[in-house]
Write a structure and sequence with these properties.
This protein is an all-alpha fold and about 120 residues long. It folds into 2 domains: about 55 residues; about 35 residues, no CATH class. Helix content is about 50%, strand content about 0%. It is built from 6 helices and no strands. Helix 1 packs across helix 3 and helix 2 packs across helix 3. The protein is rod-shaped, with a radius of gyration of 24 Å.
Length: about 120
């Protein structure tokens, strides 16, 4: 039976700032009481490693820029399925000679478009 891929939770900028603010409240001179990572992780529904990464990124921005912790997402507008224009695909296929349009494999090679998009 094929295994279904589990959806990953996306961290929004608001959630990241909420986690960072929570960590700031719990820190004592940059140190945390025992179990803080696990408590914050279970409260927000992420792993302790993710929570620690957020804290480290905030501290890194603090020390470099002398600004309060900047912990925004690093994946702005670079994720997801890339958009393909139907008109552009039709134009590229129409510009091929009949010999190069006989198979999907040859069309993909000569147009530079993947076979899955052409199929």
């Amino acid at each position: 039976m094929p295994q279904l891929r589990q959806n990953r939770r996306e961290l929004t900028d608001e959630r990241i700032m909420a986690i960072y603010q929570c960590l700031l409240r719990k820190s004592r001179d940059g140190h945390f009481p025992y179990g803080t990572w696990s408590k914050v992780a279970s409260k927000h529904g992420f792993s302790p490693r993710t929570i620690k990464r957020i804290w480290e990124r905030g501290n890194r921005s603090n020390s470099n820029d002398f600004k309060p912790g900047i912990v925004q997402r690093r994946r702005n507008n670079r994720v997801g399925k890339k958009k393909t224009s139907v008109e552009l695909i039709q134009q590229k296929v129409a510009s091929l000679s009949l010999q190069n349009r006989k198979t999907i494999r040859s069309m993909a090679f000569y147009t530079g478009i993947s076979k899955s998009v052409l199929a």
